[in-house]
Amino acid sequence: MSALRRCAWMLLALALGAPVFAKPYLPIDDDAVLERLPERTDPSLRDVKRLRAALDRNPGDLALAARLARRAIEAARETGDPRFFGQAQAALAPWWKQPDPPAQALLLRATLKQSTHDFTGALADLDRLIAANPRDGQALLTRATVLTVQGRYAEARADCARIARLTVPLVAIACDAAPASVSGEAASAYQALSGALAAPGTDAGLAEWAHTLAGEIAQRRGDAAAAEAHFRAALALDPRDPYLLAAYADFLLDRDRPAEVVPLLKDYTRNDNLLLRLTLAEARLLEMRSSFDAHRSDLEDRFDAARRRGDALHRREEARYALEITGNSARALALARENWKVQRESADLRILLSAAKAAGDTAALREAGDWVRAHRLEDAAITALLQMR
Amino acid sequence: MKSLLALLFCLIASGAFAHKPSDSYLTLERHGAAVQGQWDIALRDLDAAITLDANGDGEITWGEVRAKRAEIVAYALSRIDMVSGGTACPLEAADALIDQHSDGAYAVLRLSATCPQPGPALSVEYRLLFDIDPTHRGLLQYVEDGRTHSAIFSAESRAQTLGAGTAWQQLAAYVHEGVWHIWLGFDHILFLLSLLLPAVLLRHGGAWQPAESFRAAFWDVARIVTAFTVAHSITLTLAALDVVSLPSRWVESAIALSVVLAAINNVFPVVSHGRWLAAFGFGLIHGFGFAGALRDLGLPTGSLALSLFGFNVGVELGQLAIVGVFLPAAFWLRGTWTYRRVVLAGGSALIAAIAGVWLVERAFNVAILPTLA
Fold this sequence. Notes:
Largest sheet of chain A: none
Strand content of chain B: 15-25%
Structural class of chain A: mainly alpha
Largest sheet of chain B: 7 strands, mixed
Shape of chain B: elongated
Radius of gyration of chain B: 29 Å
Number of helices of chain B: 11
Distance between the termini of chain B: 71 Å
Oligomer: heterodimer
Structural class of chain B: alpha+beta
Number of domains of chain B: 2
Helix content of chain A: over 70%
Number of strands of chain B: 14
CATH class of the domain at 49-133 in chain A: Mainly Alpha
């Protein structure tokens, strides 16, 4: 074996052996708290455990399984913890591989497939649902979301138009605003959305989500004041929504206000997305140096763990980490390209473009410019990146 | 309406996995019959399976874990099996320790196992948590002879067969297994002997005559052995690659039948010149038998071709050793009455009788003879 190969093996063993070299210990104090469960912060999450116990006693009960899956999906959204997605999938196990399961199971299965970026599988399930019931509002809404993530805006908007007759105006307007705002109609989409949000008596959860979306659209349009107002309105309705926290942190980082990110996210270091934003903020703050070093090493471990288990769900975040923290533009570009093959949201294009610029890859730059022109994407940050070349 | 909203939001927000998902870390290190290891399982995952948080306050304390240490070990060990050389390697674990990973606290189990009949490969079947969370993964690190191999257990891929040592050591181990299989598998030896016994003789007008030259006898043997080898290599490969699979009871019965027919043919000759054709035809069936033996040993997924090749080479070497002893001796004795009457006729009759009993045993799944090997 050559010296080089031996060296490579040692490095591999070292990398893989990291958990083995850590020192396991025997705690002394019985009262020492080793782990905090998510239900510590939200006792309603105990429902998931309770429903799981009930389903164990009545396996194959579709209504019960669907309730558990739905509650677990909600829990995954609230906490950002994918274990709940896994538990939802386990609840649907009897129907998971069936070609034609009952509609209730099929919709939840599509939702879970979407959550693991199996967009093709999700669309196949949704197409089947909608073919069976063209007035299935949930299925239409879910399909519009998947199509938007894939950059298939015209098809997404067609689904949103079909929803208009099936639900309250704000849902249909928000459904349409997501694809419309990134395909040449940002101004009218924003106006329609903020107008609908002004109407009284809106469900708080729905308003929180619509405000988050409005904030993102305003931010892309370069209207920082409006964006901030929407994000703050959303935070007032749900201060713990991880998606909202990430969006607002990104806004603050864009506005060069890293000091505000730290108190916002310091209690959410278990969430990789939020830990990344926190680390990005700490990188810009001299006084946060030691905390930055610790968080950076944590992030490194998390990406490493994801790679070891064969996950490709972190690519957007990992590309951003490679570009903005480690300064490895070639790696960032490779990750951003892989990510762009699967997801085509504004943020995906932005990291692709930033990495391409840093790596000096003109082909990728041209590709990104073509996309912006073809879809008439309006995003102040992306426009600035394209102009600066 | 309410449920419509719930779904809408979770879809929007679930664009990426935010937390680290459920993984366990399993390290196994093998030295011959002994396997040592460590298994790190997240306390959160154990809580989902066997409820560590006894008082339900959302915090897992050391006291709560300590009270369930035996249960943690029993639960974990009921979710893993190791097999080597066709025999289970029972696992034991010391009491759980605690370790901090980047995503929280883990229970650490120190594992040890002894494989009573260690073969070249170690098969591990992993079933932890898949019933609770099908997205769970077991990240395995396997060390043998200073080499590290990593693998991932998932709900779709629960079994891993881990190879032994370097490619050369692995090849040598499979060659060794192949040799032993042909020596200990009496049915293959008896079949070969039945075909070889008449090779030093010639059939003339209903009677056996000694072969005129060693050369002629040698080529007759070479034809038979080559035909048998080519045939069983074909089916062994097809079966090992899962291209063709036959029920083992059928295969084992057919092998016994092939021995009966080959032996009877020596006592009441029907086929005398085309014995190599019989060797080829029945060799195809014997190949499926070898494949069954190889499967029992476990095939490392990473080096299927290598182990297949090694096993086959071993079978050939074992076969050649038998031929190397048989041919000179038989040639020397070929002119004697004893060879023709006792060895050829009597021996063949005995072989046919033994194989006939095997045939009944295997076809009807009953035990008549004491096990030979």
